[in-house]
Structures are given as structure tokens and as C-alpha cells.
């Protein structure tokens, strides 16, 4: 049975974890308290003893409103004292009565009701505050008109534009959009919104927002060096005008490399959506979203950010120490070390898609074994793990036939009798750095160095794990059977790209033949013989101590 607020930390210790709303620039904040045990039975016993008092405390503090630092500190101290008192106390025999499943559900439901009721109350308070503010604006405008001798005719009534601070509005917009974003996207968007509000001013009222403020933000961001956010974290500023001045000075004294056009666009795309939202809801008179555009010369060619692996690169990778009989000194082999490059080469899957594969995602469709790339966790532990399985786009949801080279390497034997869980049990997913962070770091920072794999090709274009995808896509397009290439729309389906052609959108309704696609995947010529790539051989390496 699931316990919503009971979690394990990375050391295997059970903890209670609650989510609260902090100030606008901080967003959601996790409060975590250790139950000081790795045993589930004892942790559950303490969980049941703590929750009645915890829910009462959370109700008192109204956790769904934005809390300031002193309120957060007081809440943390109160919860910590109460939890430590329960944890350190001797086990009470009467605690057994809390162990009934029905009681557990009531405890979880009670805390859920606390979150829900306080959220509804906060929304009601904010609505009343907006109505009161609007009434005062109208009253002040009418009094001003009377004082200057103007008649209060219907034509002179004040504009219906609402006026609220940027800090408040960012909170509202973030809450409005958060459910449509993945964890990583939401974190990046909040960082972009925070920087915008700090440059323009958190306390700036929406009715005061004009083209000059947007231009100041635009010019400041263009002048800032990369990774300036790290310096900002070191500075403890509270007043809005001081924070805005800090950003202005940082832009003036900057001598570092500024953000590229792509980097600026990542910031501006979030802010454009926010500015359009402000105009739609009458918080500003004009739509300033079009003021944030990055000019790109039409004469510039598209720069390749990643190159594809040539056959000599493929040979160096799959004849490296990972795929031989002896392991390196002090090497700690992991299953994904063997499988991730091999699967990426023969499927073109993105690194996050490979990292999120579950045992249940190895499926049979139309008589063909496939990697099922989807956005739904099937294992109960993963559903509650706080890591999103969402994909880049809806076109990323697809079934990719598993190449014979991958099956011959021992994929089915590797799975064995497992029925569920991550395909790679020794892989830890990251909710804040992207699901494929552990694979990416191992491959791009360590493996390519140990295996002496070039980091750039002959043209100076960078090579990395994502190059496997470029390689697969390029070679699949070149592969022909009986003189015919794979159909364009089927190639797009396999790689998870969107096909905007009229023919596909009009006549194709998901009618892809997986057996037919598999023939093309198996026919790809990488210029390498895969017969010596074996997971059984990889396992045997572990008995060697290395040199």
C-alpha cells in the first residue's frame, strides 16, 4: 500500500516529505524529516504515529499560501520537534492500533484535504483582493477626474486593466502552466521568470510595465555572460530595486562570453508566453511578447550541434574495454555501460528514453519484439518516485523494432525472469537534471576518455552520446532493400520526429508495418561486425581484477 508522504532518501533511510509554497522566486519547497530507520515496518509505525499531529500543524500554517522565511522556519522547527519526540520515544504497544490499512488511508486523505481546502481558501482570498484593488483604482480615477473639473461621464471611466505586482503574476502564471510541463521544464521556466522579474523589478505593477522595461530586460540579458546565475546565488539581496541594480551592473561590467542566440531564445520563449498571458487577462494594456525576438541573419547556415559517428568511431567504441574480456583498474561495471550505447546505435532512441525503459517496455507487437517508448510508468515504485517519464513531444510515443544485433547480444537473457522495474536496475534517475543524466555523465565525461574516442570529428563538429541518434537516423535514411529506401513517414515514426507532409497527415493513420520497418533496421550497415558484442562476455569480465 502506498504512503504519499513516506519516502526513502538516497541512503535508504525513510523520511517524511511535505511540499509547501515559498516566495515567488523560490516556488515549491520540499520539507523532509528523517524517521531514522531503514526498516519499513518501523518507519510505517512511526509514520502512523506522526501523521495526525502533522496534519493538524499543516492546517494551522496554511501551507498552500506563499510563506515567508520566518513562517517556513517556524513550521520546520514545529514539525521537527514533534517528529523527533515520536521517533526518540520508546515504542508504545498501543501504536498497533494505527497499523490498520483503513487508518492509514484516513491519515493520507486528511492531509490531502488540508492541501485542497487551503488552496481553495487562498484562491478565494486572492480573488477578493483583486476585486478590492480594482474598486480602489476606479474610485481614485473618478476622484482625480472630479478634482480637475472633468465630468464623470461613461466615456471617462477608467480602464478595466487589473494591476498586480510581477511577483504575484509570475506565481499565478507558473501555477497555471505547471501541470503542462515536465519537472525539468518547470524548473527552467521558473528560473527564467525569476530573472525577468528581478531585472524589471518584482514589485513593479503590471500597469507600469511598458516597452522601456521590456527593452531594458532585453538589453540586459543580451549583455550578461554565461552562468551569471551562479554569482547571483552568492549575493544576498532582498529589496527589489537593489536586485534590479545588481543585474544592470552585472551587464555593464561583463567581459565574459554572452549568451548565444539559442540561449537567448530559451529565455525569451518563456517570457513571451508570460507577456501574452498578461495581455489576455488585461493585466497590461498592450501585448509586449513580440518585443522579444532574436534577430538571425538569413545568410547564416545552420550550425551542426552534434555530428554522427563514422564506422571508425563505431569500431573504436564497440572494441573498447567495455566489450572485451578484461576490465579496467578500479572499474565498477554497470549494466547500462554495456547496453546504452548498443541500444542507442540500433534504435536512435534519445538518452532519456533509454534511461526510462522498464522491463514491461520490452513488448511484442505484430509478432515483433519492440522497445515501447511511452510516458506512463508501469512499476508502482517508479510511479511514486517523483521522476517524470514524459516525452519531448507526442510524436515520441512509438514502438521501435529491436535489432537482431541487440537480441543476439543477449537482451532477453539479461532481462531473465524479471517482470517489472527499470530495465537497468543499477541506474539512478534524476528528477532535476534529466532522466539520462547518469548515462550522459558516464559516457561523455569518462568513457570517451578511457576508450580514446574522439570528442570531435574531422570537421570539428562535437561528438557525444547523442551522436548515436544522428548516426542511426542518417544510416536508416540511406539504407535500401531491393533498391527502395524506407518510406519517409515510417522513418519519421521510428525516430520520433514529426512529419508535417500533406500526404502523411491526410492518408496515413498510424498504419506502420513493424515487421517491414525491422527489416530496414537490421539492414543498416555500420561497417562493423557485431558477433563479438556479448553481454555474457561483459559479465565474465567482472572476475578480472584489471591491471
Strand content: 5-15%
The helix fraction, in percent, is 40-55%
Number of domains: 3
Give me the secondary-structure category: mainly alpha
| Averaged pLDDT | 79
Termini Cα gap: 48 Å
Shape: globular
If helices are DSSP runs of H or I spanning 4 or more residues, what is the number of helices?
21
Taking strands numbered 1, 2, ... along the chain, how are they ordered across the largest sheet?
1-2-3
Describe the largest sheet.
3 strands, antiparallel
Unreliable runs? 90-103, 150-160, 501-509
Order of helices and strands: EEEHHHHHHHHHHHHEEHEHHHHEEHHHH
Radius of gyration: 29 Å
Number of strands: 8
Summarize the structure.
With 547 residues, the protein is mainly α. It contains 21 helices and eight strands.
Feature tags:
single chain, 547 residues, mainly alpha, three-stranded antiparallel β-sheet, 21 helices
What do these coordinates show?
One of its GO terms (molecular function) is DNA binding. This is Tyrosine-type recombinase/integrase. Mean pLDDT is 79; it is low at 90-103, 150-160 and 501-509. The chain is globular. It has helices spanning 40-61, 69-88, 101-147, 166-178, 183-200, 211-223, 229-234, 240-252, 261-280, 311-318, 335-347, 351-355, 380-383, 404-408, 411-415, 437-450, 467-478, 488-495, 502-507, 514-523, 535-540, and strands spanning 6-8, 14-21, 28-34, 362-365, 368-373, 398-401, 480-481, 484-485. With 547 residues, it is mostly helical. A hairpin with a 2-residue loop joins strand 7 (480-481) and strand 8 (484-485). The protein has a 3-stranded antiparallel β-sheet with strand order 1-2-3, covered by helices on one side. A 3-stranded antiparallel β-sheet has the order 4-5-6. The chain has 3 domains: 6-121, no CATH class; 166-291, no CATH class; 311-543.
Amino acid at each position: 500500500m502506498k504512503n504519499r508522504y513516506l519516502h526513502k532518501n538516497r541512503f535508504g533511510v525513510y523520511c517524511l516529505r511535505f511540499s509547501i509554497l515559498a516566495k515567488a522566486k523560490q516556488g515549491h519547497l520540499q520539507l523532509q524529516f528523517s524517521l531514522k530507520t531503514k526498516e519499513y515496518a518501523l518507519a510505517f509505525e512511526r509514520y502512523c504515529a506522526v501523521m495526525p499531529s502533522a496534519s493538524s500543524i499543516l492546517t494551522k500554517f496554511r501551507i498552500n499560501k506563499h510563506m515567508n522565511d520566518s513562517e517556513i522556519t517556524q513550521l520546520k522547527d514545529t514539525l521537527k520537534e514533534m517528529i523527533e519526540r515520536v521517533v526518540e520515544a520508546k515504542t508504545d504497544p498501543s501504536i498497533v492500533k494505527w497499523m490498520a490499512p483503513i487508518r492509514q488511508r484516513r491519515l493520507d486523505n486528511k492531509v490531502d484535504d488540508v492541501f485542497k481546502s487551503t488552496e481553495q481558501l487562498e484562491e478565494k482570498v486572492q480573488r477578493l483582493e483583486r476585486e478590492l484593488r480594482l474598486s480602489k483604482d476606479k474610485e481614485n480615477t473618478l476622484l482625480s477626474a472630479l478634482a480637475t473639473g472633468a465630468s464623470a461621464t461613461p466615456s471617462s471611466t477608467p480602464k478595466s486593466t487589473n494591476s498586480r505586482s510581477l511577483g504575484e503574476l509570475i506565481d499565478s502564471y507558473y501555477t497555471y502552466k505547471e501541470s503542462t510541463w515536465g519537472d525539468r521544464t518547470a524548473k527552467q521556466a521558473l528560473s527564467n521568470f525569476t530573472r525577468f522579474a528581478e531585472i524589471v523589478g518584482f514589485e513593479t505593477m503590471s500597469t507600469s510595465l511598458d516597452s522601456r522595461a521590456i527593452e531594458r530586460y532585453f538589453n540586459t540579458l543580451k549583455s550578461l555572460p554565461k552562468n551569471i546565475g551562479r554569482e547571483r546565488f552568492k549575493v544576498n539581496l532582498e529589496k527589489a530595486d537593489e536586485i534590479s541594480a545588481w543585474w544592470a551592473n552585472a551587464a555593464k561590467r561583463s567581459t565574459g562570453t554572452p549568451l548565444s542566440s539559442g540561449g537567448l531564445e530559451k529565455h525569451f520563449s518563456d517570457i513571451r508566453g508570460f507577456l501574452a498571458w498578461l495581455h489576455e487577462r488585461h493585466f497590461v494594456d498592450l501585448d509586449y511578447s513580440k518585443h522579444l525576438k532574436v534577430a538571425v541573419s538569413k545568410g547564416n547556415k545552420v550550425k551542426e550541434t552534434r555530428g554522427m559517428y563514422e564506422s571508425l568511431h563505431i569500431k573504436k567504441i564497440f572494441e573498447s574495454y567495455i566489450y572485451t574480456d578484461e576490465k579496467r583498474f578500479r572499474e565498477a561495471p554497470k549494466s547500462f555501460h554495456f547496453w546504452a550505447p548498443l541500444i542507442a546505435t540500433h534504435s536512435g532512441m534519445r538518452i532519456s528514453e533509454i534511461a526510462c525503459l522498464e522491463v514491461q517496455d520490452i513488448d511484442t507487437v505484430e509478432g515483433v519484439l519492440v522497445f515501447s517508448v511511452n510516458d506512463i510508468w508501469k512499476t508502482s515504485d517508479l510511479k511514486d518516485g517523483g521522476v517524470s517519464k514524459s516525452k519531448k513531444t507526442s510524436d515520441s510515443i512509438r514502438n521501435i523494432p529491436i535489432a537482431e544485433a541487440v537480441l543476439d547480444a543477449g537482451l532477453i537473457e539479461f532481462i531473465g525472469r524479471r517482470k517489472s522495474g527499470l530495465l537497468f536496475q543499477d541506474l539512478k534517475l534524476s528528477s532535476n537534471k534529466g532522466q539520462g543524466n547518469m548515462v550522459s555523465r558516464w559516457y561523455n565525461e569518462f568513457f570517451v576518455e578511457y576508450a580514446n574516442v574522439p570528442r570531435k570529428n574531422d570537421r570539428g563538429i562535437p561528438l557525444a552520446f547523442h551522436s548515436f541518434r544522428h548516426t542511426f537516423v542518417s544510416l536508416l535514411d540511406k539504407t535500401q532493400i531491393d533498391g527502395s529506401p524506407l518510406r519517409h513517414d515510417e522513418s519519421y515514426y521510428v525516430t520520433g520526429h514529426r512529419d508535417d507532409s500533406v500526404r502523411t497527415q491526410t492518408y496515413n493513420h498510424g498504419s506502420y508495418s513493424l515487421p517491414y520497418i525491422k527489416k530496414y533496421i537490421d539492414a543498416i550497415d555500420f561497417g562493423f561486425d557485431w558477433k563479438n558484442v556479448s553481454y555474457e562476455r561483459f559479465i565474465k569480465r567482472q572476475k578480472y581484477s584489471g591491471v
